[in-house]
Amino acid sequence: MVTKNNTEKWVAKNGVAFLKKVGIKSSQVVLDFGCRVGHYTIPAAKVVESEGIVYAVDKEQQALNELEQKAVHLNLKNIRIINTSGRIQIDLENDTIDVVLFYDILHYHGKEEREKLYAEAHRILKQGGLLSVYPKHTLEDNPIMEFQKLSLGKIKKEIQNSNFVFGKKHCGFISHDDDFNQGCVLNFRKTGSVFDI
Q1: 4-12 — which CB contacts under 8 Å span 24+ positions?
Q2: Strands 125-134 and 179-190
Q3: 141 vs 55: CA distance, rounded Å
Q4: How far is residue 121's CA from residue 14's CA, in Å, rounded to a whole number?
Q5: What torsion do the CA atoms of 70, 72, 76, 81 make, to the nearest 10 degrees?
Q6: What is the DSSP letter of 132?
Q7: By the 8 A CB rule, do 103 and 172 touch?
Q8: Is the pTM of this model over 0.90?
């Protein structure tokens, strides 16, 4: 059962530690696609500190409003809210983002939409930029929606076929919706980069 304490601990400490392990660093520019109320946005904003920026991207204005209130309460001034209204294309310049997070969102999208998402991540990421994916709901992990018949291996291959090179898998106790579970994220780099993870 999730308690307020667990959520606060995730935002203040555990989420910060996990995202550092994933590879987010101080002063970076991060984009959290499908951020909802900020379970990853807020810890990421703490990791990048005041010199960095986190773009919180979602199509649900109510969730973005809640995230904005949390950011104000926590005095986090480095979060930029973007309402996509369901569009995949993001109004950001090419090669400007250090890290893109696709955490627990891919199962909402069919293969064609996922390919567009990967292409958009590739466009906005800097050379050597990190795409970190939490592919929840594959065949190995409570399959639902668009992932009902897809394995983790197939998702990994799909991303690799979209001009990304697989780097490393990071597992731990992480946030999922308003709960917590054991989960793994897969890190990829924009093609042509040297791995440092």
Answers
A1: 6/180, 7/178, 10/39, 10/43, 10/175, 10/180, 11/38, 11/39, 11/42, 11/43, 11/74, 12/46
A2: antiparallel
A3: 28
A4: 26
A5: 70
A6: E
A7: no
A8: yes
158 φψ region: left (φ > 0), alpha (ψ -120 to 50), beta (else): alpha
At 173, the amino acid letter reads F
| Euclidean distance between CA atoms 155 and 65, whole angstroms | 32
Say which amino acid occupies 118. Y
The 10s digit of each residue's pLDDT in 10-40 is 887 899 999 999 999 999 999 999 999 999 9
The residue type found at 95 is: D
Instruction: Report the side by side order of strands in the sheet with 29-33.
Output: 79-83, 53-58, 29-33, 97-103, 125-134, 179-190, 164-176
